Amino acid sequence: MEKALKRIHPVSDPEATYFLQVSWEQDLATGFFIILSDAQHAWTGTVSEAEISKEAADMEMDREKYLEELKKALILGEESADKYNFVIA
């Protein structure tokens, strides 16, 4: 299993720091498990392959392009941090 851990500062609360861990088996396209933590609480979830396909279709985006954007937003390093905004609601 591969994992990526990223520190994020959501635009909804720029002073806050959250940690986002994404885990996947083969690659992101087959689905992934996500943990979001503020160092006091943690929230988990699973995103299935079908949910990825549905979201890409809902956004009228090619699935492969959608997956590339997911990788940039969720697992790439700090160099992509200023290109994606996170909102914690």
From TrEMBL:
Keywords: DNA damage, DNA repair, Nucleus. It holds the Pfam family XRCC4. One of its GO terms (cellular component) is DNA-dependent protein kinase-DNA ligase 4 complex. Transmembrane segments: none annotated. GO terms for molecular function: DNA binding. Residues 17-88 form the XRCC4 N-terminal domain. Its main location: nucleus. One of its GO terms (biological process) is double-strand break repair via nonhomologous end joining. InterPro entries: DNA_repair_prot_XRCC4, XRCC4-like_N_sf, XRCC4_N, XRCC4_N_sf. It is found in: Nucleus. Signal peptide: none annotated. This is XRCC4 protein. It comes from Crypturellus undulatus.
